[in-house]
Amino acid sequence: MVNRKQFKVHPVEYGPITPRGQGSPLHVAHRTSHSGFTIVELLVSILLTSIIMTAVYSVYRVQTHSAKVQESRLEAQEYARSVLDMMVREIRNAGYAPTGAACAVVAAASAQSLQFLYDANADGDCGDPDENITYTFATTGCSGGLGNVTRNGSDNPLTNCNVTTSFSLSYFKQDGTALTSLPLSAADLLTIQRVLITLTVQSLKPDTEFGSQLTVTMTSNADLRNRGLPS
Question: Do 159 and 175 meet the contact criterion of CB atoms below 8 Å apart?
Fold first, then answer.
């Protein structure tokens, strides 16, 4: 049997118990951890968020516009360059007559029109189709003060009614002197050595969001190599 006198129970000493009443530390901590935002704090948060989102959207919009402008400019440049390359390549053939055909190098020349001939198939004459070429600017079928560069008539436009009226053709002698009395006389036609083409086109995809229309101006020279190279 266990002798109870051998064991002594020592009372456990506890500190003072603080009641969880009003104003106690436990009550304050509990109340603070469950508190929410006030209306003023919520409104300030919404305002700051709106300002940040507006700034982010503005930057995004500007960047998007810049990207579209660059894309439209590149497209317009490539478009204008393709038209100029075609014109220059063919104008350089003016007067080509490998069999000695009597072809007028340039038949007519004005500020916005050029007519020339060459023996494309080397059959001894310049009377076959596509051997008498006329490039000109025409507004037929276009609106808004725009027009087309056409090849042998308005039924064969090289552009899409997106060429401005500033399209121009300039002519120069072999020594570089400009021929300014347009349309050129028969005597001046015999002295043309170089043709300068200035083409201004509008982009085919205008930026409707920003209300702007991009235009690109490009120039190119066509040397009449069958009349001799410049000295």
Answer: no
